[in-house]
Amino acid sequence: MTITDKGQNRPIQQAASEEATDVDTTVMTLHPTSSQQVKQVSARVSLRTKLLEIWHSRELMSFLVRTEVKVKYKNSILGFLWSMLNPAMTIAVYFIVFKIIVRSTVPRFVIYLFAGVLVWNLFSSAVTSATSSLVSNSGLVKKVSFPREVLPISEVGTACVFFSFQAIVLAVVLAAFGYSPAWSYLWLLVPAFLALIVFTAALAVLLSSINVYLRDTHHLLEIVLIAWFWGVPIVYPYSSAMSALSRHGLGFLYLMDPIAPVVITFQRAIYAIVSYIPPGSTTRVFTLPTGGQMWFLKLDIGVLAGSIILFLISLIIFGRIEGNFAEEL
Q1: Which of 36, 222, 294, 328 shows its CA 20 to 30 Å from the CA of 132?
Q2: In the chain, what are the domain boundaries?
């Protein structure tokens, strides 16, 4: 079977409709500037080769992301507006529960909440969809050889697209409240976002490969994410959990969660209120850490460094166990 990639969508669609070849003996490398490249590989390839194959398949990833975004809201009347209405409704529900019913004293609570939910939505949606990406695309995996890591990574790319839509909603909320972020801290969003993407991609690649053999992985992940959400300072002040853990000398564990530093960085840059005095009280409550810009940067760089290592380990594990993907699927 000869498949030529010239930067169009037709090759992948054509490949998915033809008979399967041995996916463990040939690998098709899609390169945006070259024609078909077919080479013989073993079940285990070097890490450098894996990274090059993923890089050369960037056009394929772009195609998968565009397809996923178009298909998600195909034939719907509101189209992409649903991606904005969903987080807006979530924020509205949390606001009613925690600000009106529970009566949280956190000022500008909706902005504090939205800054954290923005990060969490990207992470949770990307990891959840990526975990089942190989199973849901089993037909493509069995019928044509390509770097299978592209499938879970493309789900992270899709989540980034919807992240941008939700960021627009956040900008509208800020404008509606007449609220200004901490301009001097906004640049920290870049390393924080990069750390989030690398960590999410690392988990996506690892969990997607495990889910091929253990289908309970996807269901277990849904439960873990529920507990994980409440372990991150999104609907409660940072100091609430940190002070409780610090009394037992475990405060450092809170910041070892890779998502927590990213969330508090987004909150520090967008929400900006570090502390406040609740009405009728004389005790100051800290919603965010009091560290300066370099303190937040060190946290995000630490998460990024650990995420890079995890991503490389995930690629190694993926390469070791992908040999029997076609048979398992």
Answers
A1: 36
A2: 46-328
